[in-house]
Amino acid sequence: MRQQLVKTVKDKGITNTAVLEAIGRVPRHLFMDSGFIDHAYVDKAFPIAADQTISQPYTVAFQTDLLKVKSGDKILEIGTGSGYQTAVLLELGAKLYTIERQKELYKITSKFLPQIGYFPKRIIFGDGYKGLSDEAPFQGIIVTAGAPFVPKPLLSQLAIGGRLVIPVGEEVQVMTLFIRKGPKEFEKLEFGEFRFVPLLEDKN
Questions:
Q1: pLDDT higher than 70, residue 35
Q2: Which of 34, 55, 82, 156 is catalytic?
Q3: Catalytic annotation on 55?
Q4: Which domains does the chain have, with CATH numbers?
């Protein structure tokens, strides 16, 4: 079933072999309620706790491909969610820091990931809009929820040459890539429309 999912994602245009192999190694069924095992390797998003979703595998592969992760890269993930994207990044050898805004999901995922053999450097309960300045700079930052605007702290926490992958928009998001070219210079590229749950901000 996992290899069929890899084929589906590949047929949709993902050619990055490392990303495809990572998708093929992650046991996606473990990230979902056992009653929905039949849905685990179908290329679609699916509801999880706290009114959130486990992302569509193609979307996970697409964002991961844009990030261009190399083994040992320091990566920040905004929106741990189910932990599925987290696992894919760890399979690629990322030194991963991940932030979750939903307390319920943070509690579940921070225990669950180590139980199935995935060990981020840190799993943080906090506000993704602020990034993680005490661990910056990062070679890559990936946002797994729809942001109405691009948070400036995320851009400032990128290393020179680093990449920020973020879906930007309210109802529908445009997948956007920022590449840091210098202290104040960024290249911006857009890659079509996607739909994500909203990125929550701490208003306190």
A1: no
A2: 55
A3: yes
A4: 2-194 (3.40.50.150)
